[in-house]
Amino acid sequence: MFTLALTPGEPAGIGPEIVARLAGRLLPARVVVIADRDLLASRARDLGVPLELNEWRGHQADRAGGLEVLHVPLRAPASAGKLDARNSPYVIETLERAIDGCLDGRFDALVTGPVNKGIINAAGVAFTGHTEMLAARTGTPRVVMMLCGGGLRVALATTHVALREVAARLNPPMLEQTLRILAHDLSWRYALDRPRIGVAGLNPHAGESGYLGREEIEIITPVIERLAAEGLDVQGPLPADTLFTPTRLKAFDAVLAMYHDQGLPVLKYAAFGRGINVTLGLPIVRTSVDHGTALDIAASGGADPGSLVEAIEAAAIMARNAERASVRGHMRASTRRAVEG
Question: What is the pLDDT of residue 327?
Answer without folding.
Answer: 59
